[in-house]
Amino acid sequence: MSKLPDGRYVDDAPYDPNVDLSALDRSDMDAPNWVLVWRRFRRHKLGLISGLFLLFSYLMLPFAGFISPYTPNERSAEHLYHPPQLIHWWHEDTFVGPYVYPTTAKADLESFRWTYDVDRTRPMPLKFFCEGREYRLAGFIKTDTHLFCAPEGATVFLLGSDRLGRDVFSRILYGAQLSLTVGLIGITVSFLLGIFFGSVAGYFGGKTDWVINRMIEILRSLPELPLWLALSAAVPSNWSPVAVFFIISVILGILDWPGLARAVRSKFLSLREEEYVRAAEMMGAKPGRVIRRHLLPNFMSHLIASATLSIPAMILGETALSFLGLGLRAPAVSWGVMLNDAQNLASIEIYPWTAIPMLPIIFVVLAFNFLGDGLRDSLDPYKA
After folding, report:
1. What CATH code is assigned to 172-378?
2. E strand or H helix at 242, and its extent?
3. Radius of gyration, CA atoms only, the chain
4. Where are the domains of the chain?
5. Residue 49: burial class (beta carbons within 10 Å; 0-12, 13-18, 19+)
6. Confidence (pTM)
7. Dihedral of CA 370/374/375/376: which sign?
């Protein structure tokens, strides 16, 4: 057997005209569509790894409080701008298990920065399945059990602490709950509006198509960022963080639907002339049924790929608004809110770990783009 560049295998044996062709494996011909899509997607290694990473990230969201050693707004006044700590296992050639060294803060009056002295003579083992500050597991169940905690008299800042002594690692996990969810809510709003207006314009045409197209052009002609800022500034400052979160998600979804609506419209303009659509109409099918049962399923592969490529834009939109102070606000925790706290370049130069929240944004956005590329190539399983 030899392997072709596209990943398929070919038998090197000479052709035998007496082979019974009816006995050949017909698994590819008889396999359902999702099996063909999965076989092709598996060959896109970068897309597969990105999909697994995103799946793990979203499955972790309900358990962010359990994994985090601290709650998002829990402060340690004696450990401001604490550098990241390493977890050690061996002490003086003796296996101790996961432990940290206690640290003592000291103000350096010459460089005007916090420094920390590490006591390497006292290894302090971490506590597991321990009691800490109370939080809500999956947003509903009150509990105070954490996966691991700092020992008494020590801290466990895996990614350091910020200007108020809050654990950056814990805040990143809690911030993922909002930053990753805003993309799902925004894309839901965007797809509902885009599919509705695009399908109506493409199927009915005429004056309906003209009105919807003019509305799309007006929305697309408006500068995106200033429009975000204007709509976000209109949100009352006395609203709760949850209310602000949902209204920001809806704003992002409302501003993102025109591009999808145009894609749906152009596809429907060609599909509505197909014979199976004409046959359904002659049999008395109503427009809603024709769109739902005959047109949309033929466009579903494009919709799935578009969703994976649009969610990163939603996440970046929330991050930009929160960074500028017009999105989510404290005490809510998102990656954009964390970057807003770290926008002082002088502080980043002295305490570079305060800029770590931008790393999960980069990883998630890249993962969604790689996943979208893999799905776009895989959803046409008969493509050579």
Report:
1. 1.10.3720.10
2. helix 241-271
3. 27
4. 85-156, 172-378
5. middle
6. 0.80
7. positive
